[in-house]
Amino acid sequence: MDLTASVTDHGGSLARARTLFPDAPEPWIDLSTGINPHSYPLFDLPATCFSRLPEPGRISQLAAAAATAYGAPSASHVAPAPGTQILLPLVAALVPAGRAFVLSPTYAEHRRAAAIAGHEVLEVNEFEALFDADLAIIVNPNNPDGRVVERSRLLSLAESMRRKGGLLVIDEAFMEVGPREESAAGDVGRGGLVVLRSFGKFFGLAGVRLGFALAAEEEVRRLEARLGPWAVAGPALEFGLKALADSSWQEAMRARLAREASMLDEVFARSGLPAAGGTDLFRFFRLAEAQRLFQTFGRRGILVRNFAERPHDLRVGLPADSSETGRIEAALRDWSDDGKG
Question: Domain spanning 14-39+248-340: which superfamily?
Fold first, then answer.
């Protein structure tokens, strides 16, 4: 497998969008990523977070804040990192190279990361097939369709992995806007289980590059050894400490995103396009003319996520304001009118 060539487009590339649609109006509306359009409020950072290496004590505080926010057993069960992307091959390498099964369709980088770690990788469509793996990988809630696997089933799989020395990896990047009772974050102390949490998506600060692996203490120590000292940059540390502790902002934002996701569903439904799934950070659509809709949006300067391997699927993030919603409505009218012609 050519691991360099297999890096996949994941959305969010406005340079690619401008190449595809050179005559589209500016500014572009990027609805291709599933990142919260309402970011956590920016604040003044201390000069020392730029001029000094992060103190180990501050990293420990960040791990404790993440443990509280995500429901991990303790700070010693949390490995902070510069984004979950860098964690993927490190986590996959926690078990010897063997057979890695990914519950698909889902985020493409899990397959590539498992291959980097030396595993033979297979994408499977049935949850029960994961029991035959040495490394089982699930995105929960799933990207792009929002599928949720119940915690009880996940724990059964984790127990099976633990008994045979395997590992279950659950990517909970969108669990902040999912059914949090189905999170396995509180169960990582049992072993055989790693839960990944992304900071940037829910807090709308993807450029900060911050993420966490929640795991048994031994696995956390192994990950920290591979990440090395000062893995999290000073500015990311400060944003993480403040935002993760701000439970009031988090609760208010969950309510706001739920309202806005419902409103976006209504906009599409008026054009005869009911959502087929998703989360409160993105909506998922499946339709025969998905590629025509992608093109219509692109000509209007709106980037949504299409999938070359699944041409009937589209993922659409939330608009930031009423102006962006108006442009979506205009694009949908174009699409409907073109279909009548």
Answer: Aspartate Aminotransferase, domain 1 (3.90.1150.10)
